[in-house]
Task: structure prediction
Amino acid sequence: MELTHIEHIGIAVKDLQKAIDYYENVLGVHCYAIEEVKEQKVRTAFFKVGQTKIELLESTDAEGPVGKFIEKKGEGIHHMAFAVQHIDKALEEVESKGIRLIDKETRKGAEGLDIAFLHPKSTFGVLTEFCEKKAGKE
Ligand code: CMX
Result:
């Protein structure tokens, strides 16, 4: 398995617009996309810092993963996403090494990427995402 780079860091926020204002007006990075991912019960905002993206996550449902996270732990870093080259093989490989998968099959995440999560209880407390951009996608 080869992790090519950190694709994005996901940050849970209570108010997407207030967080966007901070990233744009204080850190000086441009929000290039806002997208709702219904299946994940979030609205996301994206920024690029070099090759890595920052993904702000606002919950659209208190019972969704980000809503529950904020309720328990407050705002902050929610997950780290690695770009991988062959996501199905990467999932098989980590599972064969005893890591608990949240997603055995990939699903569609923001920006049309194929994504899957590893359980934070198996990954030293960091919710870990694998992402693969399939050929032909921008
Ligand atoms: N990072 C680290 N630990 C986390 C966590 C996170 N983001 N979210 C939950 N946990 C921990 C909790 O603190 C809890 O630990 P304790 O048992 O020690 O208290 C444990 O995991 C179970 O948490 P829970 O609140 O009971 O929540 P669930 O088990 O129902 O769900 C999880 C946890 C990780 C399986 C679920 O959030 C999930 O499936 N996440 C993947 C999908 C996701 O996060 N989507 C949002 C992002 C979408 C995107 O990027 O597009």
User: Anything to note?
Assistant: The longest helix spans residues 16-25. Residues 10, 37, 40, 42, 44, 55, 57, 65-66, 68-69, 72, 78-79, 102, 109-110, 117, 119-120, 125, 127 surround carboxymethyldethia coenzyme *A (CB under 6 Å). Strands lie at 3-13, 31-37, 42-49, 52-59, 76-84, 107-108, 114-118, 128-132. The CA atoms of residues 24 and 30 lie 6 Å apart.
